[in-house]
Amino acid sequence: MSGILNGKNIIVMGVANERSIAWGIAKSLHREGANLIFTYRKERSFQKLSQLLEANGIKPLLCVSCDVSDDASIEAAAQEIQAAVPVIHGLAHSVAFADKEYLQGEYVDTTRAGYLQAQDISAYSLVAMAKACKPLMTEGGSIVTQTYLGAERVMKNYNVMGVAKAALEASVRYLAEDLGKAGIRVNAISSGPIRTLSAKGGVAGFNELVTTMDEKAPLRRNVDQDEVGDATMFLLSPLSRGVTGEVLHVDSGYHILG
Ligand code: NDP
């Protein structure tokens, strides 16, 4: 099979099930010939991931446990990856978490612990992973994360996660400057609302966000995991070689509306 990512080794983080944005990304990367390394947190996610890989005939280079809130876990995962795969060309970061208690009501009620946890898992994790991957990206590379419009403007109930995504997007820019010298690009995709485990179970009033897309987005429809997967693949591929520090909206154009 020949593809734009033939011979490229890419880490995919954040497949919890077939609805995960990371699974859409994995399918696009596989289609273009990439060799995939997966990280997971919960054992249940690993089981789902294994079933999905089997069902889709995808043979990963490696599946590694990695809890991004734990430096030792990140370090162990990086060592395991380095031992198995000498050079990494890409990282798809698709993980986030905030307690659902803070994804409803008013942002002003966020506790210190709730704020720090959202920042830690959803924003700092990109910094930690970029640091861990840099020594493995000896041929240059591309890092892509997933953000949401709630970083740029107030979206009802998104609250603490909007603030974490704002930090994530700023981190994309600072990391792009730092890692550019090593030929490593850093970008983000800002996706429309997609019914995934985290989104449905986490953000209050999530269904309204989806309905609004059908009614108001310029394309008068929502986006899906496969569209985000293809756009992420583009940013991980040489097709986007002149792009870094960018936030690319894959949201049927919703962000251009006032
Ligand atoms: P999923 O629930 O499918 O994926 C979230 C992933 O985050 C899971 O695989 C989960 O792993 C992982 N995760 C959470 N905490 C940790 C941790 N401490 N260490 C390692 N992994 C962790 O939801 P999505 O696909 O929706 O989310 C993926 C990304 O896309 C997130 O950054 C999200 O904010 C972003 N996004 C989502 C949108 C949407 O509408 N769905 C819109 C825009 C952006 P586990 O289950 O094993 O804990």
Supply database-style keywords.
alpha/beta; globular; Enoyl-ACP_Rdtase_NADH; Enoyl-[acyl-carrier-protein] reductase [NADH]; NAD; SDR_fam
Task: Describe, in plain words, how this protein is organized in 3D.
The protein is built from 8 helices and 7 strands. With 258 residues, the protein is α/β, with parallel strands linked by helices. The chain has a 7-stranded parallel beta sheet, with helices on both faces. Helix 3 packs parallel to helix 4. It is globular, with a radius of gyration of 17 Å. NADPH dihydro-nicotinamide-adenine-dinucleotide phosphate binds next to helix 1, strand 5 and helix 6. NADPH dihydro-nicotinamide-adenine-dinucleotide phosphate (NDP) binds at residues 14-16, 19-22, 40-42, 45, 66-69, 94-97, 121, 146-148, 191, 193-194, 196-199.
Question: How do the strands and helices of this protein lay out in sequence?
Answer:
Elements (H helix, E strand, L loop, with lengths): L8 E5 L7 H11 L3 E6 L2 H13 L6 E4 L5 H14 L5 E4 L18 H22 L7 E7 L11 H22 L3 E8 L5 H6 L3 H11 L8 H12 L10 E4 L8
Parallel strand pairs: 1-2, 1-4, 2-3, 4-5, 5-6, 6-7
Helix pairs in contact: 1-8, 3-4, 4-5
Bound molecules: NADPH dihydro-nicotinamide-adenine-dinucleotide phosphate (NDP).
